[in-house]
User: Fold this.
Amino acid sequence: MNRHEALEIVKKQLTEHRYEHTIGVMETAIELARRYGEDEKKAELAAIFHDYAKFRPKEEMKQIILEQNMPKDLLSYHSELWHAPVGAYLVRTEVGIEDEEILNAIRYHTSGRAEMTLLDKIVYVADYIEPGRIFPGVDEVRELARKDLDQALIRALQNTIQFLLKKNQPIYPDTIYTYNALIINKK
Ligand code: GDP
Ligand code: FE
Ligand code: FE
Ligand code: FE
Assistant:
């Protein structure tokens, strides 16, 4: 599937704002793939489809999580987490992408996972730093991403966890596992 076809498909699933975010993630993911030696076409497709399920009704996402035997603990956490695993499922079943590396990068783009692949990391960081993002701390992560992808990811996770703590939100275990694995590996 080429870029144009992929964008035509995803555009129908998204708002204008979210489509522009997706273009930013795509461009950033391709840059990171070039810098860190990942397959640029895989990074492009994973980025284009990463938020495919973002606007599905909560009830539909909940049903897919239950029927497809996804981790049920997801349902106890914020529904913002659901579009990532549900997106991986729908990108396979509705779009027909079968590449497991691409599907995993979509599946783990919100929480991360303990053993992240290079492609997972690229999509996670690109989602965080694409040019349309303007939250506090994003410039520091942009700088880090030029030099050391793991350091960028650690800082993005620290910011996300801190943000959730301040809002009295629960933190999904995979988010903590991702952070711990990166910190432990650095030593
Ligand atoms: P987006 O889809 O491009 O907006 O970005 P993401 O998919 O990365 O994140 C969606 C939302 O999930 C963000 O608002 C994060 O703060 C939130 N989020 C990320 N990790 C966790 C977590 O562990 N727990 C909870 N409750 N929310 C999280
Ligand atoms: Fe997302
Ligand atoms: Fe993210
Ligand atoms: Fe996103």
Residues 3-186 form a domain with the Hypothetical protein af1432 fold (CATH 1.10.3210.10). The two ends are 41 Å apart (CA to CA). Residues 109-110, 124, 127-128 surround fe (iii) ion (ligand 3) (CB under 6 Å). The first helix runs from residue 3 to 11.
